[in-house]
Amino acid sequence: MVVDDDFSARLQVRFTLENEGYEVVEAASGQEALDLFMENQPDLILLDVIMPDMDGFATCRALRTLPGGAHLPVVMVTGLEDTETINQAFDAGATDFVSKPINMLILGYRARYWLRSGAILRELEISQGRLFKAQDIARLGHWQRDLDTGIFEITSHTPEMFGLSRSGDFEALFAGIVSEDRDRARDQIDDACRLGHDFSVTYRIVLEDGSERIILNQGEIVGGDPHQRRLAVGILQDITALKQAEDKIHYLAFYDNLTGLANRALFREHWSKIFPHARRNGKKVAVLFIDLDHFKRINDTLGHPAGDKVLILVADRLKTVFRHSDIISRSSDGSSALISRVGGDEFTILATDITTSNQVTFLAERIVEALNQPLQLDGQLINLTASLGISIYPEDGDDIDTLLKNADTAMYEAKDNGRNSFQFFQSAMNDAAMERFHLGNRLRDALENGEIVLYYQPLFSNANGKLTGVEALIRWLDPEKGLIPPDKFLPFAEENGFIHKINDWVIQEACTQAQKWVAAGLFTDCRMSINISGNRINFKLLVANIIATLAQTGLAPEQFEVELTERVMMENTDEAIKMLAQLRDIGVSIAIDDFGTGYSALSHLQLFPLTTLKIDKSFVQNIATADKDLSLLLSIIGIAKSFDLKVVAEGVETEGQLSALGEMDCDYLQGYLLSRPITREKLEERLRSDLVD
Description:
Blueprint: E1 2-3, H1 7-19, E2 26-27, H2 30-40, E3 45-48, H3 56-65, E4 74-78, H4 83-91, E5 96-99, H5 104-138, E6 140-146, E7 152-155, H6 172-175, H7 179-195, E8 199-206, E9 212-222, E10 231-238, H8 240-254, H9 264-281, E11 284-292, H10 295-302, H11 304-323, E12 338-343, E13 346-354, H12 357-372, E14 375-377, E15 380-382, E16 386-393, H13 400-416, E17 422-424, H14 427-448, E18 452-461, E19 467-478, E20 482-484, H15 490-496, H16 499-519, E21 527-531, H17 539-553, E22 560-565, H18 566-570, H19 573-586, E23 589-595, H20 603-607, E24 612-615, H21 627-642, E25 646-649, H22 655-662, E26 668-669, H23 680-692
Parallel strand pairs: 1-2, 1-3, 3-4, 4-5, 16-17, 19-21, 21-22, 22-23, 23-24, 24-25, 25-26
Antiparallel strand pairs: 6-7, 6-10, 8-9, 9-10, 11-13, 11-16, 12-13, 14-15, 18-19, 18-26, 19-20
Helix pairs in contact: 1-5, 2-3, 10-11, 11-12, 12-14, 16-17, 17-19
């Protein structure tokens, strides 16, 4: 296209170019040129500068804004060769300029040069567009930083994809990286720049919309000789989808698709990780092999889809057992117990850092009990049991195949012995485990069958000897073995968690009995005390249960006392303080039991919402003969009084102890000299005789 308001000038140029084989269109003004451009899309424009209405500068600027005009060769034709005109031409977007009068002899050659340059620019534009498109598809970007000048450039059609802007700020490379990954990424890239190494770092970024992406940034340091700039160049790639696909592949390779548990491959890989640690540190590892009893009946009667649902529920039960278990520890190498489904209705467990067989026994008991509970399936209850076999490294083998085989053998022995139980591969270990297992079953039956009863040990006023309350103490009246003392079964109940059910039963039984005595006029101005023991006490549930039981039985809160040791309260200090304060505020007494042993600290007297301090009997035993013990007891009583606490002395067994305590500011006395724990009937006789007296 030739643009000139001079007809003769246009004609001369047109004639010359057409003789060279070019197709030429003419425009007599800037506006006509713009209109023709939209119709013809020329490959080269020769544009006169001096024209009326719209000069060449304005026309060039307008052309550059039109579609396809950004990189088109535009040659300004001017008779003015001053520097200002030339600068103005290039500022307007001119590709080149030619002076009038035009040398027609070389115009054709120059036209070929301009056209070739325009073609190169167009190809470059197309290549850049393709590059940007390829980068978008591959989610790629490129950056470089001049290590001498600090100039930073990013080449990407969508730098926002990488949490970047076009600002040219190197710090922007790290601004969007999540805080946990930022320092690591910066250190790796900075170290590579300093040492001249290649680098590859993966990190997470957060985009403006709040979504999180995973970015791979890898590159190298180039240049550094006297004739070349030293650059850090990097390729950015959004690999989020790739990582998700890798995670999916890993999941399919190592996890059971039905239950979400580990599969056989991951089970073996986990063993390969924990075995060196166990061998090096002399640790034991337990392998538990679990097989569901009569599972085939479920598939045969309800169908395989129902069987699959049962397997999912079983997996959830097993996960719950481990979430609530405090007996399986984490190894120092970071490994922990693993549950896996190895096929069909068979499950295996690797339990690490085992120190005693009792640990595995407790775990097996919990699994048997958990799987013995009915399953809710599509509106109906499914009764299910399981048989477990257990082998222990290193006693039962030092490779996983041997341990699995032995655990499998023990599992079949458990099935032969009636199912719904577990069996150790080693007979001696199994005898001890079975004894504890049967003890647990008998204890559960004892609570349901009324074999667990309360005895009551009276509490007396130190001032006048009057009976002022009783402490409820648990006893087991076994039909075969007779009276079983609490030290024979309570430790076991605490270890396996059954103590919590016992605590609930004691609260209900003690409150009910106390209110019956109150209604009969036998328990006026007296208080019923109970001990709360066990591990991992849920104080929120405990307090709610006590408040509900007091309301249900009608017993006044002022006639009820809860005794806890410091160890129990210190397991969950914040919750204990908050919830016990609720009991104290409604009138329930809170006693700290066995003070002076174990965890005892004077700060606890101020920390917890206490009303009563019970001095351990070890401080009472020698007060009549040892001045040191007497002084210590007096000090404890004095401190308790400074905290406005009532004081109970336990373990009064001799007249000398009774006489010594009578001289002290001790509020209540308890011990075998005054009264042993007695049955409900004998206590009622005592209460009635006190009324007569």
